[in-house]
Amino acid sequence: MKFTKLQGLGNDFIVVGGEERLPEHAAELAVRLCDRNFGIGADGLVFVLPSDIADYTMRIINADGSEAEQCGNAIRCVAKYVYDNALVDRNRTELTIETKGAGAQPVQLTLGDDGRVVQVRVDMGEPVLEGRLVPTTIDGNPVKDYPIEAEGRQFRFTAVSMGNPHCVIFVDDAAEFDLHTWGPKLETHPYFPRRANVEFVTVRSRSHAEMRVWERGAGPTLACGTGACATLVAAVLAGQTERTATVSLKGGDLLIEWNERNNRIYMTGPAEIVFTGEVPGNVLAKAGAR
Ligand SMILES: N[C@@H](CCC[C@H](N)C(=O)O)C(=O)O
Predict the structure, then answer these.
(1) CATH number for position 137
(2) Candidate of 7, 47, 60 to mutate for ligand 1, largest count of ligand atoms within 8 Å of Cβ
(3) Is 198 in the pocket of ligand 1 (CB under 6 A)?
(4) Is 216 within any annotated ligand binding site?
(5) What does the entry list as the binding residues for substrate (predicted)?
(6) Are residues 145 and 244 in the same domain?
(7) Within this chain, do residues 43 and 27 fall inside the same structural domain, yes or no?
(8) Which of 45, 137, 196, 216 minimizes the number of CB atoms within 10 Å of its CB?
């Protein structure tokens, strides 16, 4: 099985094309290949598949084998993968990528001097403040600045779905926050029926927020695109930023815009190829995939 390793702000993915459908043993493969000691190492395994409603479909399996509905950094990587490998007409710099949680998402490509993709602007769709992925049982209302307790410590959170679930918490200093202690406790808090990605955020100015993330199914990652979108939504709802702001993550910056007219979120950031390779048959067999 041929693969390409890509990364978006250090959020890294093993991208596999050429399959007709999601392999039966995708979860086992993800666990094995994403392992940073015994595998290739990545935050997720991404399959680029045919689509009836878009140029391609993306399916993402987290490093723990769970499937995510959506992934902002991976969609930029997939856009680069299909364009740079000429899997779409090279005259087109506007494509659509279907995701499980957010339908067909339009992406705009910016090309470098070498004609390859350097940056991608993604229409991430509308944020959802209540629904199946975020807790609606609390007073029957969208959950904004609501108390949540983990092992005796009190936080306040805003729940946002970007197709996948997010728990956004404002803290005094996101860069110094003890992610490893509180991230896993909040990821699995009973408020979140399908677990959650947890963002710890400090607003630095009306156009800049700093964020650290504990991702569902992957733990501490260097960046989370959907988490940056959820962060901006929570910050705007709290009256702390404008509707366009830079979100700084450990791996770099994303520009996020929440359009007032159409309620959609736009995310702009880079994507890079790291290397290509091939997983040998005996390794696939160990994961039950051959
Ligand atoms: N890193 C991602 C989100 C990946 C999926 C996430 N771990 C989940 O389970 O929802 C991003 O860039 O959005």
Answers:
(1) 3.10.310.10
(2) 60
(3) no
(4) yes
(5) 11, 62, 72-73, 164, 197, 215-216, 225-226
(6) yes
(7) yes
(8) 137
Write the CA distances from 49 to 35, 87, 183, 254, integer angstroms.
Answer: 23, 11, 32, 26
Enumerate the β-bridge partners of residue 156: 147
- How far is the CA of 42 from the CAs of 8, 12, 77, 271, in angstroms? 12, 5, 13, 15
More confident residue, 169 or 146: 169
Do 253 and 190 have their domain in common? yes
Check if 197 has its Cβ closer than 6 Å to any atom of ligand 1.
Answer: yes
| Cβ 225 under 6 angstroms from ligand 1 | yes
Q: 30 with 23: CB under 8 angstroms?
A: no
For residues 255 and 157, membership in a common domain is answered with yes
Q: What is the DSSP letter of 31?
A: H
Span 225-250, pLDDT tens digits: 999 999 999 999 999 999 999 999 99
ipTM of the complex: 0.96
Q: What are the φ/ψ torsions at residue 173 (nearest 5 degrees)? A: -145, 95
Same domain for 142 and 189, yes or no, is yes
